[in-house]
Amino acid sequence: MKDLKVVYALIQNEEGNVLLVHNTDGGGWSLPGGKVEYGETLVEALKREVREETGLFVEVNDIVSVNEGKSTQMNVHTLFFMFKAEVQDYTTDIQMKDEISTLGWFSIPEADEKLIYYHHSLNAFINNKATYCDEGFVD
């Protein structure tokens, strides 16, 4: 079974709304993020994915959730990492128009309705906190 890592950013604006992107592949709405590429750390991948999907430069903060799933049909075991992230400039510009059709800022109840992958409210993640440390190369 192949291993896959996926990162997502939980970004809130000053009003407390959450940024969501709409995927063109039929995946519906999600938090900005995507697959970690070979050689990337989780944070490097998250910064790249958010930039590609939204045009935003993020500061990555604490990890707030780790989920996993297996697909026997696709023969893949996926780990999903959600981080809180902050931005200084909220001006968005979708870079990957073939992957993201639109994006928007939604209240947590609105986002909860659109996000089909989470079994509980984003409120559960807002106050979660775990440290994350990239320990670099270990010889």
UniProtKB/TrEMBL annotation:
This is NUDIX hydrolase. It is an enzyme of class 3 (hydrolase). GO terms for molecular function: hydrolase activity. PANTHER family: ADP-RIBOSE PYROPHOSPHATASE, DIHYDRONEOPTERIN TRIPHOSPHATE DIPHOSPHATASE. Residues 1-130 form the Nudix hydrolase domain. The keyword Hydrolase applies. It holds the Pfam family NUDIX. InterPro entries: Nudix_hydrolase, NUDIX_hydrolase-like_dom_sf, NUDIX_hydrolase_CS, NUDIX_hydrolase_dom. The lineage of its organism: Bacteria, Bacillati, Bacillota, Bacilli, Bacillales. It comes from the Bacteria. Its EC number is 3.6.-.-. It comes from Staphylococcus haemolyticus. The keyword Hydrolase applies. Belongs to the Nudix hydrolase family. Keywords: Hydrolase.
